[in-house]
Write a structure and sequence with these properties.
- This protein folds into 3 domains: about 55 residues; about 70 residues; about 110 residues, Histidine kinase-like ATPase, C-terminal domain (Heat Shock Protein 90).
- Strands 1-2-3-5-4 form a 5-stranded mixed β-sheet, covered by helices on one side.
- By secondary structure, it is an alpha+beta fold.
- Helix 4 packs parallel to helix 5.
- It is elongated.
């Protein structure tokens, strides 16, 4: 074979080998890229499904909380109406009967009339504080004022309502939830705190509403105590997109703080 022909075939062979190497490299790179792309798509799909599952679970929990609160509100409304329509009417009739007694000037009769009158007023206040429609009509501030007035009438506590910032209207359903949190917190103060003073503070900030209930009682260890009332307040706050914060320590009183974004 002539030398020129040999060189020509040699050049063609080298070119083919180079071409094969390049082609093989491209195929390998393409396969690796395809595998990486598949892996990325699989991971993205998996993350999307996980997020959808978490969202479904969160929505389910929200709906469950909302249903529970609606049932509670309906129960409280029914109790309120029963107190007003039945017990209140019976006490009113008892008071009328007392007024018809021949010796109404008798101190015992007068004391009994006063006790019945007080019971009627207390039941009326209780009925109003349980009835959601009345609370919605009064608004958050007035409802809290009435609640503190009832507590102060016992002579066992002094109370204060402090309001700061430019007052704005909050959604009525959220106001209802906030008021129920206040009620639960005040109930805890009365039962367990040993406090003498209770203060409720409403702060109206440009993009945030802060509600605080503070007492000067004995406090408690937050690492040990976690009752149904605290869980209920936390769940209610979660339902309206608010944060629930508890600050307490033995001998230092208790502060319940709810922060509700308003933007």
């Amino acid at each position: 074979m002539p030398v020129n022909s040999y060189c020509m075939f040699k050049d063609i062979g080298e070119e083919s080998l180079t071409t094969l190497i390049i082609l093989g490299t491209v195929i390998v790179v393409a396969l690796v890229s395809f595998v990486i792309l598949l892996s990325y798509l699989f991971t993205a799909k998996k993350n999307k499904l996980l997020k959808e599952k978490e969202l479904m679970q969160a929505n389910f929990q929200q709906e469950l909380l909302r249903t529970q609160l609606e049932i509670q509100e309906q129960t409280l409304k029914t109790i309120s109406e029963e107190i007003h329509d039945n017990i209140g009417q019976v006490l009113s009739l008892a008071k009328l009967n007392l007024n018809t007694l021949p010796n109404t000037a008798d101190p015992k009769v007068q004391d009994t009339k006063n006790l019945v009158s007080k019971a009627i007023n207390d039941l009326r206040n209780l009925s109003h504080s349980l009835h959601g429609d009345i609370i919605a009509e009064l608004g958050l501030q007035q409802s809290i004022t009435n609640e503190l007035r009832i507590i102060e009438s016992t002579k066992a506590f002094t109370t204060e309502l402090k309001i700061s910032g430019s007052v704005f209207k909050i959604n009525s359903q959220k106001e209802m939830v906030l008021f129920r949190i206040v009620q639960e917190s005040l109930n805890n103060c009365i039962k367990y705190s040993g406090a003498k003073k209770i203060m409720v503070e409403l702060q109206y900030l440009p993009q945030l509403f802060i509600l605080q209930v503070q007492d000067d009682g004995q406090g408690f260890d937050t690492g040990i105590t976690s009752g149904i009332g605290l869980k209920s307040m936390h769940n209610r706050a979660q339902l309206i997109g608010a944060s629930f914060n508890l600050h307490a320590a033995p001998g230092s009183g208790t502060i319940i703080a709810i922060e509700l974004p308003t933007n």
